[in-house]
Specification:
With 324 residues, the protein is of the alpha/beta class. The chain has helices spanning 37-46, 66-70, 94-105, 136-145, 160-166, 184-200, 299-310; strands at residues 14-17, 20-29, 55-61, 112-117, 123-131, 149-152, 171-177, 216-218, 220-225, 230-234, 241-242, 247-252, 259-263, 268-274, 278-279, 284-290. It folds into 2 domains: 14-214, Zn peptidases (Aminopeptidase); 220-290, OB fold (Dihydrolipoamide Acetyltransferase, E2P) (Beta Barrel), CATH 2.40.50.100.
Amino acid sequence: MPELYNLPASISVEVISGKKDGPIVFVSSAIHGDELNGIEIIRRIKKLSILKKLKGTLILVPVVNVYGLNTLSRYLPDRRDLNRSFPGSTKGSIAARIAKIFFSEIVEKCNYGIDLHTAAIHRSNLPQIRTNIKSNQTLMLAKAFEAPVVLHSELRDGSLRSEAQEIGVPVLLYEAGEALRFDERSIKIGVKGVINVLKALSMLPETKKKFHANPLILNKSSWVRALDSGMLRTIKALGDMVKKDEIIAFIDKPLNEKSFELKAQYDGIIIGKSQIPLVQEGDAVFHIANNDNSFIDDEYIDYFQDASLEHSNIRELNAEYDIE
């Protein structure tokens, strides 16, 4: 990578090649330097004995934004977002140069990709796959991952997923947990999900499943924003189902008795929320998604996550010490 004030920098890459031919898949993490769950997901994946049966090639990149990780920052030293800088340029900003190296050295050599993310600082995301559900191929892989939610996500200019699709490399984006924090369940779902996708691509042998449930397929989402500034008192959690006009939080004025109700704008499920009780007017507080169709009890989400992990065929999945 470009040197930072004359200090050398590099991106570490581990390539695992199977004895037989097959697809080439990359798994990347920490494109945003403060998103840590993916780093732990990749660490655990590397230790799995099932990879001895791999067909094809698996490329693991635990930290793409090495500069942001060093400073606990989402962004790069030039204050740009790396995930808006693809496919990059050899003559552009530091963000463009890093994007170009990663894109040309990793992404262009692959058939598929899985990009691991968390929510931004002071927010948390329910484990979810974001992809193009209008594509039969990516929808099949998204379902195979077995996160509780699959959300249709439009492509954003300059994002890794958008530019990879332009060259015919489908990418799943896994969102789970919050920045600068480990979340054990999100990590376990991520490890299991990557292995599930490799099985769906016939890169690993299929095993008889003890459990199978279809994730919620959601086609739209939007943020509920604070109507005023104050102290946020949430009464709904990640994974909760909400009805239109249902109260989901209160915003209290710390210096008087005033309190404002925050309501859901439509039926749906909470897939993201603020983790900090201080809000300014206009701040994003709850991310709600739905599919214009069914209303499912929120107990399904907890059951889906816990049961899928409990009945996993990956022996080492629960062998790690849990992060509390």
